[in-house]
Amino acid sequence: MKIIYRYLLVELIQPFLFGVFAFTSIFVGTDVLISLAKMMSEYGVPLLTIVKLFFLSLPQIIVLTFPMSMLLATLLSFGRLSGDSEVIALKAGGISFTKIVTPVLIVGLLISGLTIFFENSLVPTSINAYEDIVWKLKHGTVKPKTQRNLVISPVNRQTGKLDYILTADKYDGNTQMLEGVTWQDYENGKLVTSIQAEKAEWLEEEWVFIDGTIYTIGDNGQVPQTTFKRFNMKNKLNRTPTQITRNQKDPEEMSLSELGEHIKLMEEEGRDVSELKVVYHQRYAIPFACFIFALVGAPLGLQPNRSGSSIGLGLSIIVIFIYYTIMTIGSSMGEAGTIAPWLGAWSQNIIFTIVGFVLMYKASR
Asked: How is this protein positioned relative to the membrane (predicted)?
């Protein structure tokens, strides 16, 4: 069996690598090269920088091509085996279709895991580096970590009412300092304390308000004031500079753990995070398509008259089109709240898994 498995994997790996190269070339030729050419003409970007941007854009594209390449490889390899009657020979030798497909499914699962790993590490890093370079080219300075008109307003999970409101005229990520700060503390939805300070600094893992006034709102309507030079906000303001800076990033620039934490903070502020949750679950669902496409592609490749490469390529395009159409519909429904976000992100995988098992059952009969 080891020899047969090795033979099947060799048959699979060649069209898979071809698919990665072919699909990557299509994306690069239709998008990346056009964008880089525009940058060269508009900003006079040096060739060395263009080369660097080119390689930084590749991880995101290559990861996207893995599921497509897995489908193409499965269709072509099983189409070739079927066309040359090698599958019939294997079955005549007592090897069931399930055993023939098993190594392909394992490879599909491994590539799914590898894709998720890249999505969580290499892809966000390369996107951040790419965006930093592009920003510097367009504005002549490094990308600022400054945020103006900052507002943070989390909801108390126990009471479901507003916990506090923090506003700041400006947040500087480089100095980790807030300017023009106002803090309003609520108990059961009622304002009890208000603090105004010229600035706030992140010192020794906690926020310290500097040069301000505390207003305590009493039941009798009196508002006594207390001025201070420094006031420690330990256990009150639970946002770190990293969490505040993360608000400036797009979801694709975050790792899975960062995105999960960002969603949690947005939920605390009572914001609609359906769209973010769909994106989060898609970061697992789309890579898992490598396994799904292996499951669907193997029995499809066994069908009569599927041995031609052009037929395999055409069939893979049709399957991919249907897959992404269902994914788009499911994601839209998840973002709109019609269905749960996780179901919106995984709907295409659920449907294709059912189809795959039906095809596998028919092929193994």
From this structure: Multi-pass membrane protein
253 within some domain: no
Tokens 């189409």 belong to 79
Same-domain pairing of 207 and 60 = no
Cα 81 from Cα 299, distance rounded (Å):
12
The arithmetic mean of pLDDT across residues 337-346, rounded, is: 94
* CATH number of the CATH domain containing 208: 2.60.450
Does residue 87 surpass a pLDDT of 90?
Answer: no
Q: Does 27 share its domain with 136?
A: yes
Q: Rounded to 5 degrees, what angle do the CA atoms 143, 45, 122 make? A: 55
Residues 136 and 96 occupy one common structural domain: yes
Q: In terms of residue numbers, what domain contains 42? A: 1-140+274-364
Beta strand extents in 123-278 (DSSP E only): 146-152, 164-172, 177-187, 190-203, 206-216, 225-232
231 phi and psi angles, rounded to 5 deg = -135, 120
Domain-embedded: residue 258: no
For the record, the structure tokens of 314 come out as: 């055409």
CB contact at 8 A, 173 and 156: no
Question: DSSP character for 29?
Answer: I
Does one domain contain both 132 and 158? Answer: no
167: β partners: 151, 182
Q: Residue 141: pLDDT above 80?
A: no
And the tokens for 108? Answer: 């599909």
Please give the model's pTM, rounded to 2 decimal places: 0.78
Number of domains in the chain: 2
Least confident of 10-24, 75-89, 141-155: 141-155
CB hemisphere CA count around 361 (13 angstroms): 6
Tokens representing residue 243 in the block: 């969490």
DSSP state of 156: -
